[in-house]
């Protein structure tokens, strides 16, 4: 996809997420809007994986460690044909498999996440196996910046550096917010770039709500035999004015008025594009 | 589910701790990006210097609490029950229980509170895990009066303890404030002679409702509140097993290692009363709206009554 198509796609997906959360009355709204451009870059431009090849050992892997932003993942997977869009009508419903976190009962999802701080370690395992089996696949792991407080993230980072896993790409959705407020006030994890460099990563920073820019960075493989970290500078709630940079939109559900206003904003942005 | 009062356990705890904090300068509240979910904003606004935020780091949360307690503080630790009793369990075992530090661990949004968020967020094994650890008291209060009394007790006790609370607004199971809370004491809250129902925490209310339904059908039903999961009221359980031929336990927990199992261990070694354990089966629980999930697993008041009836016919 070209730059414009990617941006457009990300806004169309925002409409799907907005609707999904509004209708089911549950969801991690700000978190999903924050990372949707990253997922768009991955699923429409970067990942060597299709609904058909998903699960085959050669296919690239994606692990969403910040599992709570599952609405973004569901929107992308259904749009890419991993499962029918109609299935999401039962999102969060009785006995549904489309629950509020990623589960591998759903086609396209490799691992069950939701408890923060697991994804990078899982990524290390999949990347190690690929090395052992001489597979040319890449493993991508998406984490939150608040999530960086988990000690397990750093245990995994140490292992990734130790095994020089250049087939592992960690991405941090660096929106500066978590549930209780600004990450720098809740538990400061900075300087993230310097920390990951010290753990043996090749670190890059990108404008995180620009899918084309993210795609370019992710496609540029580093020459060094090091795992990569992409720090995606994002805005939590990106795309709807009253939601942007507001910690309280972490898992807030829009009212009817808010839904309509937000939808109008997304539509007018799409018209501009 | 059914709500009469409009207050959650978290709100009761926040109010009670604010009262206690006035006369207890050592009392601290520790959170892991959980202050909103724990409804602690009021406490933290009022006593900013008495709160410690650890970020999304539940293991460190518990170790830091143990250190603070060792140094004379009275930390109350708040984190979702699923993470506090799984992610942090070795810290709970070694730094709190084994080292005997005065830490009160409050597992919020316990049991099936996060129904639609899936197994990562359910804590349906927390009682099994925590009761297996020596030197750790375990409680699950059922309503506002009991919660208040429990926290007044916890503020004065020096024992490590784990408390599980849920997310829902709590209907009253009792009619008035408690004089005091006694660890290791269960309460008979309804007399009856045909069958004895034992529950605790948020399922106690549905159990009381079920008892009323059974009463309407001519089955005289005793209801016991087993708020103190550990220590256990062995004496009362012995007595109940002497009086009743049939005991049913009801819990928002896996049937493995929870309240029912605790009761069975005691009664099996006494009279061997016939018992049924109503709880969550040994599977990753289904997701969905909580009331429907509870009904599916036979934990709504109507299903409890129905299943007790068929147990009595067996
Ligand atoms: C181990 C664990 N602790 C706590 C939570 C509850 N929780 C869900 S999302 C969240 C905040 C995440 O913040 P961040 O990583 O910055 O992600 P964002 O949504 O801001 O992108 C928390 C604390 C969890 N899911 N897992």
TrEMBL record, chain A:
Keywords assigned: Thiamine pyrophosphate
Pfam families to which the protein is assigned, alphabetical: Transketolase_N
Membership in a protein family: Belongs to the transketolase family.
Identification of the protein by name: Transketolase
Alphabetical list of SUPFAM superfamilies matching this protein: Thiamin diphosphate-binding fold (THDP-binding)
Cofactor(s) the protein requires to work: thiamine diphosphate
Residue ranges occupied by any Transketolase N-terminal domain in the UniProt entry: 21-250
Domain of life per record: Bacteria
Secretion signal, residue range per the UniProt entry: none
InterPro entries: THDP-binding (IPR029061), Transketolase_N (IPR005474)
TrEMBL record, chain B:
Record keywords: Thiamine pyrophosphate
A Pfam family the protein falls into: Transket_pyr
Protein name: Transketolase
UniProt-listed InterPro entries: PDH/Transketolase, THDP-binding, Transketo_C/PFOR_II, Transketolase-like_Pyr-bd, Transketolase_C
Natural source organism: Liquorilactobacillus sucicola DSM 21376 = JCM 15457
Cofactor field: thiamine diphosphate
Occurrences of domain Transketolase-like pyrimidine-binding (ranges): 7-172
SMART domains (alphabetical): Transket_pyr (SM00861)
The organism's place on the tree of life at top rank: Bacteria
Similarity comment text for this entry: Belongs to the transketolase family.
């Amino acid at each position: 996809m070209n730059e414009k198509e990617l941006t457009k796609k990300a806004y169309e997906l925002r409409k799907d997420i907005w609707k999904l959360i509004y209708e089911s009355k549950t969801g991690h709204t700000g978190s999903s809007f924050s990372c949707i451009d990253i997922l768009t870059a991955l699923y429409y431009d970067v990942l060597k994986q299709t609904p058909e090849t998903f699960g085959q050992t050669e296919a690239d892997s994606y692990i969403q460690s910040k599992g709570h932003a599952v609405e973004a993942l569901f929107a992308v997977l259904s749009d890419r044909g991993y499962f029918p869009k109609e299935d999401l009508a039962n999102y969060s419903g009785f006995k549904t498999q489309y629950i509020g976190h990623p589960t591998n009962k759903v086609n396209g999802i490799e691992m069950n996440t939701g408890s923060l701080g697991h994804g990078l370690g899982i990524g290390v395992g999949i990347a190690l196996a690929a090395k052992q089996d001489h597979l040319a696949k890449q493993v991508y792991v998406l984490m939150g910046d608040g999530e960086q407080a988990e000690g397990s993230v750093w245990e995994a980072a140490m292992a990734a550096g130790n095994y020089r896993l250049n087939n592992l790409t960690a991405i941090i959705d660096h929106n500066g917010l978590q549930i209780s407020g600004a990450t720098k006030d809740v538990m400061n994890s900075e300087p993230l770039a310097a920390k990951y460099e010290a753990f043996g990563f090749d670190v890059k920073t990108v404008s995180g709500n620009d899918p084309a820019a993210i795609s370019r960075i992710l496609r540029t493989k580093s020459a060094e035999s090091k795992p990569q970290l992409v720090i995606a500078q994002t805005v939590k709630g990106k795309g709807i004015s009253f939601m942007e940079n507001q910690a309280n939109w972490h898992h807030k559900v829009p009212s009817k008025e808010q839904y309509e206003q937000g939808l109008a904003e997304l539509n007018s942005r799409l018209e501009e594009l | 589910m059914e709500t009469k009062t409009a207050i959650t356990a978290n709100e009761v705890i926040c109010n009670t701790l604010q009262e206690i904090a006035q006369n207890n300068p050592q009392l601290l509240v520790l959170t892991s990006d959980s202050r909103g979910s724990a409804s602690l904003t009021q406490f933290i606004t009022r006593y900013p210097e008495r709160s410690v935020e650890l970020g999304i780091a539940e293991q460190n949360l518990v170790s830091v609490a143990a250190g603070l307690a060792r140094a004379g503080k009275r930390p109350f630790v708040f984190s979702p029950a699923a993470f506090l009793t799984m992610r942090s369990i070795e810290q709970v075992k070694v730094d709190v229980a084994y080292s005997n530090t005065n830490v009160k661990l409050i597992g919020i949004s316990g049991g099936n509170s996060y129904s639609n968020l899936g197994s990562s967020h359910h804590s349906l094994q927390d009682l099994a895990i925590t009761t297996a650890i020596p030197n750790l008291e375990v409680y699950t209060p059922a309503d506002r009066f009991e919660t208040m009394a429990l926290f007044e007790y916890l503020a004065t006790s020096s024992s490590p303890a784990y408390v599980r609370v849920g997310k829902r607004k709590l209907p009253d199971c009792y009619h008035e404030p408690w004089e005091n809370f006694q660890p290791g004491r269960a309460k008979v809250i309804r007399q009856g002679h045909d069958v004895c129902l034992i529950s605790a925490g948020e399922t106690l209310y549905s159990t009381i409702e079920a008892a009323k339904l059974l009463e309407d059908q001519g089955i005289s039903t005793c209801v016991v509140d087993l708020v103190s999961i550990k220590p256990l009221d062995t004496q009362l359980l012995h007595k109940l097993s002497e009086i009743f031929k049939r005991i049913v336990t009801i819990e928002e927990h896996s049937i493995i290692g929870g309240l029912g199992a605790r009761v069975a261990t005691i009664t099996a070694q006494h009279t061997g009363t016939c018992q049924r354990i109503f709880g969550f089966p040994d599977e990753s629980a289904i997701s969905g709206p909580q009331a429907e999930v509870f009904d599916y697993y036979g934990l709504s008041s109507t299903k409890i009554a129905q299943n007790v009836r068929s147990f009595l016919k067996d």
